[in-house]
Amino acid sequence: MVPRFPETTIVNLDKLTYAGNLQSLRTIESAPNYTFVHGDICDLDLIQRLFAQYNFTTVVHFAAESHVDRSIHAPIDFVKSNVEGTVSLLQAARAAWSNSDQRQCRFLHVSTDEVFGALGASGKFTIDTHYAPRSPYAASKAAADHFVRAYATTYDLPVVISNCSNNYGPYQFPEKLIPLAIVRALEMAPIPVYSRGENVRDWLHVEDHCEALALMLRQGLNGETYLVGGSGECSNLGLLRLLLTIVDEELDRPAGTSLSLITFVKDRPGHDFRYAIDASKLITELGWEPNHTLAAGLRTTVKWYLANRPWLKAVMDETYRTYLQTQYSV
Ligand code: TYD
What is the Å distance from ligand 1's center to 88 Cα? Predict the structure, then answer.
């Protein structure tokens, strides 16, 4: 694999909990400018040692517990990783950068649109939308965002915050709706849809998200927040119709085979009705534009999952299968 930023040394710190897997990193593991470290962002000693060893000038903070359903069952895990983990990274960056030229440094905090709560049938989240998180997951990310801003104000830490909409694409752990539906369709198993499938999400292809983050790193202004969304608004049922039609086409199945697996189940408690992002600041100030339409992005995603069944098998071990069964009872 040819490294995208050959002049940059990249150290990837990951705890490899249930959704992390070294198999997802195979294509970059032998790149000369890449190192993997197995560790926990809450381990401040470790983070400080890594700062001392590598002299980081940039932190891109992706690490988080991110699944709303899990946060409903185990909120404290979310406080630990998302809040304490974020503060530990901030603390280490602050200590390491206090005597250096902070203009050369950057802490990019990757957050979510869920911190803004739920929208009704119209309107979009903008950078002026007030925080109103409603799930334990969203509350933990909101708390983390507040800490990042507090470090910027109190200690002049050079931060940029990104709040993005629902991501999809290759390598996504099959607890999220799109890969979950592909896996269940492959197994001819029921596909659980909460309530009547009317909730709306704004789907963003992961590569478009990463391009946006790369722009923020290079051109974003210190202390700024950018919202990233793919203009891919769709109800869950509408999305599954599109997705499962593609699955049937790619598998040469009679039309409607996978759609017939949709099973309406009890709604998620506090289920946010709609998310939609106004990404105009990112578009006008940093020149970002998404390259994937939802239809084309879903097709490449389905093809990826069908071509990578060994990866799927590896990440979906028995523990996960048991979790799915108890979670959805379908
Ligand atoms: P999800 O992928 O969990 O992302 P988020 O909750 O962060 O938006 O869910 C996307 C939407 O799909 C959300 O409205 C919940 C719904 N959903 C289902 O209907 N069934 C499922 O099994 C899952 C996982 C999600």
Answer: 30
